[in-house]
Amino acid sequence: MMKKTTLITTITAVMAALTIGTYTTTVSAANLKSVSDIQPVWRTDVTGTRTEVHPLMKLVPGGMATSVKLTGLSRVQAFDFGVRPDDVVSEASLDLHFTPSPSIAATTSQLNFYLNGRLQRSIPLTADMVGKPAHMSLKLSPKVVETVNQLTVEFIGHTSSVCENPADAAIWLDIGAESKLTLVKQRIRLANDLASFPSPFVDTVTGAPTVLPMVFAGHPTDTQKEAAAILSSVVGRMTEWRGADFPVFYQGTPAAGHYVVFATNEKRPEFLQDLPRAEGPMVSITDAPGSLYSKVLVISGRNDEDLLAAVRALAVDRPVMVGERFKVKKVEVPPVREAYDAPRWINTDVEIPFSKLIQYPGQLSARGYTMPQVHLPVKLVPDLYMVGDAVLGMQVNYRYAKPMPEETAQFRTFINGFLADSDTLAGKDGRGTRQVHLPSFYGSLAVNDPVGPVLTHLNDLSFSVDYERTIQGGSKDNCRSVMLIAHQMEIEPTSTLTIKGLYHHAELPDLKLFARSGFPFTKYADLSQTAILMSEKASETEMTTMLNTVGRMAAMTGAPALHVRVTGDMKSSVLADRDILAVGRFPVEMTNIDEANATKLQKQMVDDFATKKAGAFTEALAGNRDNGVSAVVSAESPLSNGRTVVALLSEGGRGAAKLNAELVNPAGLGTVTGAVAILNDAGVTGFQVGEKYTVGNLPWYHKVWMSVIDRPVVLVVCALLSALFVGFGIFTFMRLWVRRRA
Predict the structure, then answer these.
(1) Alpha carbon distance 116, 407 (integer Å)
(2) Could you report the per-residue pLDDT of 675-695, keeping only the tens digit for each?
(3) pTM
(4) E strand map for 438-486
(5) Cα-flanking dihedrals φ and ψ of residue 193, to 5°?
């Protein structure tokens, strides 16, 4: 009997193996489309698993927390995370490290875990957890996971006191920084449908930077570079603070992931040779060859002008696209933008209602037993300059839950985390209006750093209402129960921000302005006053540098670079009367990172532009070194007064990779200063070299004052001349007065 059972088991295993082998052979031999109707019991569109570990503190809204403390009044903490539409989560788990107060009661105190509002588990705090570091792991239901998710931890703490007080300082639980959320994911193949654009090519849900490779049939032409630059600006505008990276491939394709291909009828990558000939500008989506899940966004056309028209269609109004192909019929390219009208910069000299600054619904609301602050980010034009009096203020209209009798509440306003104003609230009507004067400054806004209550280019206006809570304790014989009522505060969208009476002025070159705001290129948000100079045979890494820079600028301004121009000719008229962004290689050998070499590098760059030297920034130096060094160099353009040249230079692949890593990170190059910045393994080193120049519209009398303020000898001479002039006037007047009386 034992032998018979073993024989049957063996035969069954062999039959199963033969069945699987037959099925595999059939699929590999036949066209996949012919067996698309044959569905096995498992998913064939799922790739191998991968595990992602997310530190829990980075999932706190705002992403700046180092630890989280829950109390009897602040019992709930939310953690936000996203999942790409082409990902499916098969497992989710939470590893929580925490320390409960030694004063809380075991068993009756508990932790509740919710995922998207659904209870996952409720775990009591046992005696061996209380008063010391503890750890627990729990599984979360992957069926509850959506594209945008919120994990919530609720702490219910009790003490052994007979008359418990929820405001007791002994009720607390600290969540440690080593806590983490683990997700096991698989990629799935999505349908070829442009209706989901920008998904899956642009990631706007996970908080990670978007990586979108771009593939060309060879060295792209100037028009193809312009098309790629516009597309990178479209993606950069969508990713905002997350960052975007655009690796470039000539003929080759990335090993994994979604990517973009530029193809004309006469020049296309080899793997798209069977693509039907285009009859005009076209955008299409298809499966990436050799991949189980990757998609290809194909920008195609009869010629380069069609490619430009196709990406402009994506940038202008995000057309309604359905299906695998979208034919662009007509593109209405908007006129060039005015100076300083970037969508993400507030307009000065007018009253701006808060409704135009809101980024998402509910941004101006707060509720809870202990209410969080309401935050409103404000981006100012980077070259603002204050002379004399100016109007810097807000009219804040708000509503709030009226304080209980014999309790008080206070409304507070903060600027970049520093207290700017406070006011005691009346308890009769639950409404209020407050005129808040913003801190003034003298001189350039660009020199301000958020080390005090001052305005900078990037500002955070925040508001809060804090209530006084009087919770009287009791005794065993006279215990008083307390019912807490959650409060609520609303900042009305009709509130206004007013910044008037400021001028535009900047002293250049200043790489700090370039790194933080893209100035002076972003002065015109569509880059209509920007020309990009790079070799006609630019390398893949140089193309990546250019695209990353343009995408970073679009993230800062919120506008696509519809009017940017690209040329590889130093003598081109495109460079005249424009700010120039040059991408290339070191024109001189960097023997050391010091001021002398920085000066030599800047001088050589200026001389090359002045003489229109052919091959400048494009030819590798003798020896073709690659020491992992790159540089950002700025100076006044020799081709036009008041215009700026910024050159992004690298020695080789390692240096270009280091520079691109800084450009992709929105906070990258944050410490750069001066006119020349050298990047190497030791960090970023800035040098203020060369001559300075100014741009802007300061009044003439202040320009005179600025020209003499740093010259004490001139000030003394002017003072003596003024004294002589005034004295001579007084002497003449007195002589005339005496003569008249005589």
Answers:
(1) 35
(2) 999 998 888 999 999 999 989
(3) 0.86
(4) 443-444, 458-467
(5) -140, 115
